[in-house]
Amino acid sequence: MRLVSPTLHRAFPVLDRFDDHQGEALLRRAARLGSSPTPVAIASGVLVFLLWLTLVYGFGPTLGQFFGSMPRSMVRLLSVLLGPYLGAALAAGAGLLVRDRVIERRLLRWLGPPPRCLGCGYRLDGLSSAPCCPECGREIDRTEV
Length: 145
Known about the structure:
The protein has helices spanning 20-32, 37-59, 72-111. By secondary structure, it is mostly helical.
């Protein structure tokens, strides 16, 4: 999940076991190491935008039947005016999701899988002081995790 905050690294649960300084450093390293996730994010955003425009302009005029008594010209006008803006918002969201997924996979590859409860498989990221699993109640033995 992407959060708008000064501690962006907290959006990645795998970094919960680190303090703020270490988490920020790992996130910066993951974002710029190797092939940058930005071109992948831009490409996926452009693809989603083009798909959206194809759907809006290809099928937009036929959507009038779903709006009941709305005139066909009004539906076409709405699809022309709102189509690019909604498509851009979808594209930006898709680009951010893809970029964050690439960064998360990179972090998981470096840091290994997150600790999990042996009873139910619940992720124990950020629960370093919890005596038991919040999902099933099993006592957490840190040597087994």
